[in-house]
Amino acid sequence: MSFSITIEDREISFLEEDKTILNALERENIESHFHCRDGFCGACRCSLKEGTVEYKQYPLAYVGDNEILTCCAYPTSHLVIEID
Predict the structure, then answer these.
(1) Would you place residue 1 in the very low, low, confident or very high pLDDT band (cuts 50, 70, 90)?
(2) Cα separation of 34 and 38, whole Å?
(3) Average model confidence (pLDDT) for the chain?
(4) By percentage, how much of the chain surpasses pLDDT 70?
(5) Are 52 and 32 in contact (CB under 8 A)?
(6) 76 Cβ partners below 8 Å, 6+ apart?
(7) Of 82, 84, 8, 21, which Cα lies nearest the Cα of 50?
(8) How confident is the model at residue 43 (pLDDT cuts 50, 70, 90)?
(9) In three state form, how does the secondary structure of 20-77 look?
(10) How far is CA 65 from CA 13, 15, 19, 24, 52, in A?
(11) What is the mean pLDDT of residues 9-36?
(12) Tell me, what's the pLDDT at 77?
């Protein structure tokens, strides 16, 4: 199933082969900070304005309310996110 991700007034598609939101952002040449890709450091933290995500493996880095880690999250609905 494909979901859309709206970021900075731009809408992109999340494809099953992307596996994570970070991969979808990279595929579309949208700059997003990251270091580990495994949910340990929290560098890819961004604000979740609308929608829901799940984690294949829950991250070890702190994730606050309305925040997600793009390196290990995938959408379960259409999303609106903001890179902080």
Answers:
(1) low
(2) 10
(3) 95
(4) 99
(5) no
(6) 3, 51, 52, 53, 54
(7) 82
(8) very high
(9) CHHHHHHHCCCCCCCCCCCCCCCCCEEEEEECCEEECCCCCCCCCCCEEECCCEEECC
(10) 24, 25, 23, 23, 12
(11) 95
(12) 98
> In this structure, which amino acid lies at residue 9?
D
Lookup result for tokens 């709206």: 6
- In single-letter form, the type of residue at position 21 comes to I
pTM over cut 0.90:
yes
Q: What six digits make up the tokens of 72? A: 């290990």
Between CA 46 and CA 66 the distance in angstroms is: 9
Q: Please choose, from the candidates 56, 50, 14, 12, the residue with its C-alpha nearest in 3D space to the C-alpha of residue 37.
A: 56
Which amino acid does the sequence have at 10? R
